[in-house]
Design brief:
seven-stranded parallel beta sheet, alpha/beta, three-stranded antiparallel beta sheet, Aspartate Aminotransferase, domain 1, Rossmann fold, 435 residues
Amino acid sequence: MKKIKILVSFFLLWACISAQDLQEHKFDYSQIFSVPDLSFINQVFTGLDIIEQMDFRPLESKTIGIFCNHTAVNRNGKHLLDLLKTHKNIQVAAIFEPEYGLWGIDDKRAKLIGSDRIDPVSGAKIYNLLGRSVYPPDWVMRDLDLILIDIQDTGVRYSTFIPSITKLLESASDHEVPVMLLDRPNPLGGVKIEGPIPRTEYQSYEAYHLLPIRHGMTIGETLLIVNEMGWIKDLKRANITIVPMANWRRDQYFDDTKLPWKNPAPYLKDLQTLIMFVGLDLFRGTNLNVGFGTEHPYLWFGSPWLATSYFLEKLNRLNLPGVEFKEVRYRPMGSPYYNRVPQYDGLSCSGLEIIITDKNLVKPVETATTIITLTDQLHPREFQWIGRGYIDKLFGSDMLRVFVAQKKPPAYLPPRWMHDELKFSEFRQRFLLYR
């Protein structure tokens, strides 16, 4: 009964949208789905919640492919595939999964039939877009009427979801298959921007588009930029419709939305971890352990050779905003979150715990680069870059590596990317769908 009441209110309010609201967002290659004013309900509605309230009518009588993972749930925690199974006139013909798979690293739901992985709910075959091929097969695309995208992004440039979707948009453009994207919140909010924009010669899957490390946009806003600016290969554009959220504000972090948290990556188990992931994922380009092999990824870091007492003293003098540090000792043992051996697996490490005291003040990229710079200065013999310059791919340029080599004070580095932040903040304005 409650659902029916909300649905009736939804369509009554549809007619109340002003012409100004309808015309507010007009773009050359992308469409923004018109949604009603639901501000009388004190709840955030995702794009999935919006089309669910419409009883999935935009998908009626269509053969669709879905790009999603376990995060594609409505505000009650029910998954998109489970919601669609009662709609017999919507045929789910293919599922495209991102990094970490459809259901995360513990993929127990998909079943294997021969060499094929099949979703037992929809009966659709599952195709991984980060394995042997980053594109869906041509014979699959030819049979689709629509591609539906619903996934919770991290709000951080390192994540591979946006690059995978960009490749999917490229294929959709080639095969003239329309795309519908269901928007979700940026879990880090939509206000703060931090970090440099990658230089073109350093672009990779970790720095695929010209975005700061923390870009402050929803997945819908990000892909709107990608499509409108021709950032798909060879300036291709997709026929994309974005279903925006209702009632989400840019100043809201994920814990302000009251939506169910689903780890966007196996090791991002809560908002605190995600905030520090913004900066500390840079440690993957160093020989520091970043908490893998423990229950505290991105909140602990250390090594067998780190002199933590002296390091903590030097770090505290810098008064980094929004964080405190505490000495810890730990022994990384395998990794419950990621299929790789952690740095110093099985060895006793001295390290520091990062405690976020104010999520609105903390600057994760500044915190991480400060720690890296201090580590090199205090342990010049032990500290190393690893992965054949992998740090440059993560950072988006050689700026950090060159700065560390110059032995300058850590506080000198953040102003170097401030210009990027200001330019991007100005550039993104016309693509923002929320206030």
